[in-house]
Write a structure and sequence with these properties.
Layout lengths: L8 E7 L3 H16 L3 E4 L3 H4 L4 E8 L4 H19 L5 E6 H13 L5 E2 L5 H8 L19 E5 L1 E2 L10 H5 L3 E2 L2 H13 L4 E5 L8 H4 L4 H9 L6 E7 L7 H8 L3 E7 L6 H7 L5 H14 L4 E8 L6 H14 L3 E6 L7 H5 L6 H24 L5 E9 L3 E5 L10 E5 L9 E10 L2 E6 L4
Parallel strand pairs: 1-2, 1-3, 3-4, 4-5, 6-9, 9-10, 10-11, 11-12, 12-13, 16-18
Antiparallel strand pairs: 7-8, 14-15, 14-17, 15-16, 17-18
Length: 444
């Protein structure tokens, strides 16, 4: 490499996909550090010009077609750099590698090693001269220091017809309560105040370890950790929802009144085809109970268009459901057939892609209208806001109802200095469909 005057090993970690993948990358980076290897997260070009042997680790996503294409494009880009001698080693890990390593190895020989999702120590051992000594939950934070993702489990047992995750990650595996709480304490000591709790299915947490669902006990224990200001819950499953979790959410002030619960559809026919094990009526009853027990809660959901069995009538049912429920947060995706899933094996993908995307656009247009109305209702109200960053004209923050990267932000006028990670009360003066504008309350 140009400018190389040392044989010191240096590693760049490129992380693709979801927040669960990001946590894996952060743990891998800590292992490299503990083994004496310099590591950087998605560094700029200047980093690659410094002396040393440069290795690149790509942590891939293999969830849907677009994610696979992005991962392969990233690998090919670094494979070209490997062939041209601009890097000294290329390693691939994560979901795509877990599922397709045997096929990809023959097609992309420039990759030095393919690893799955969890063989972090083995990957470090290919580069480092000594064994990593970091605790299994220790990691290098790549998020702003005041918030972090907290992964409480791996895998999934639900086997929904459209989803390849169980084929990639295997059975659901919970981490012990004590280990998760210890990780939270460690991160608080480093300045983290907000924890976004994540898993493929957090509402199954504990069944494999304790013989019963223990998500309520876990959240209660996390809320007890001194310094934890916000706990936000992601990726709940509606069937067999643990209602005792709602009591914890209502009782603990540092548990955000927010729940990410993917519903996928509202037509009984489509839900049955998806193997969701719940009906529209049961879903509506659950949502009503959630809102009754946790007043003011903001619900985020994900819906899918074009799954086999969704005709015009079933799609109208979905639109009607969204109109009635008025979700505070919603995303929609067009169905993408994944090989090996129940849906791919048992149903013909008959809805044209153009039609899937048209329905998706209709759903999101409806949601934008709903969101605009909900946002407008917040004008004049005062919310506790965490400041994430400073822009030229505004400070940018979030309320307890807003998860990083996916939810609306609050633009706070620069009437007085504010620091990243600081909480302040903000009175909303203007609403946009996906943003709020306000002033620090003492300035209004």
């Amino acid at each position: 490499m140009s400018g190389a005057v040392s044989q010191k090993d240096r590693v760049a970690v490129i992380s693709l996909g979801c927040s669960k993948n990001l946590v894996d990358s952060e743990r891998l980076m800590r292992m490299f550090e503990s083994a004496g290897v310099e590591v950087a997260f998605q560094p700029d070009e200047e980093w690659f010009e410094a002396p040393g042997r440069i290795h690149v680790v790509v942590n891939t996503c293999g969830f849907i077609g677009d994610a696979k294409e992005e991962s392969i494009a990233e690998i090919l880009s670094w494979a070209a750099a490997r062939s041209e001698g601009r890097i000294d080693g290329l390693y691939v890990m994560g979901c795509l590698s877990q599922r397709y390593a045997a096929d990809l190895e023959a097609e992309i020989p420039e990759v030095d090693a393919w690893r799955g999702k969890t063989d972090w120590a083995g990957l470090v051992g290919l580069i480092a001269s000594r064994h990593p000594g970091a605790a299994p939950y220790d990691r290098v934070l790549t998020t702003p220091r005041h918030h972090a993702y907290l992964k409480i489990a791996e895998g999934c047992d639900r086997m929904c017809a459209f989803c390849a995750i169980p084929l990639i990650t295997g059975r659901f595996r919970s981490r012990p309560v004590e280990e998760i709480v210890e990780e939270a304490r460690l991160l608080v000591s480093r300045g983290v105040r907000e924890f976004n709790v994540i898993a493929q299915d957090l509402t199954s947490y504990g069944k494999d370890l304790y013989g019963r669902v223990e998500i309520a006990r876990l959240v209660d224990a996390l809320a007890d950790v001194e310094g934890v200001e916000w706990i936000r819950l992601h990726y709940a499953y509606p069937n067999d929802f643990p209602l005792d979790l709602l009591d914890v959410m209502a009782r603990r002030p540092n548990v955000c009144k927010y729940l990410d619960i993917a519903l996928q559809h509202a037509s009984d026919k489509v839900l049955d085809n998806m193997r969701r094990h719940i009906t529209r009526r049961q879903t509506e009853e659950l949502l009503a109970e959630i809102r009754r027990r946790v007043p003011g809660i903001h619900l985020r959901t994900t819906l899918m268009t074009g799954f086999p069995g969704e005709g015009p009538g079933e799609f109208e049912e979905l639109l009607d459901f969204v109109r009635a429920q008025r979700f505070e947060r919603m995303g929609a995706f067009a169905y993408c057939e994944e090989e090996g899933t129940y849906g791919a094996l048992h149903f013909e993908d008959t809805v044209p892609q153009e039609e899937k995307e048209r329905r998706q656009a209709m759903l999101m247009a409806l949601q934008e209208e709903i969101s605009a109305g909900i946002q407008e209702g917040k004008v004049g109200q005062t919310f506790r806001v965490m400041i994430d960053r400073e822009e030229p004209d505004y400070y940018v923050g979030r309320t307890e109802f807003d998860s990083p990267e996916v939810d609306p932000e609050v633009l706070v006028e620069k009437t007085r200095p504010l620091a990243c990670g600081e909480f302040c009360n903000v009175t909303i003066t203007q609403a946009l469909p996906f943003e709020l504008i306000g002033r620090a309350a003492s300035d209004v």
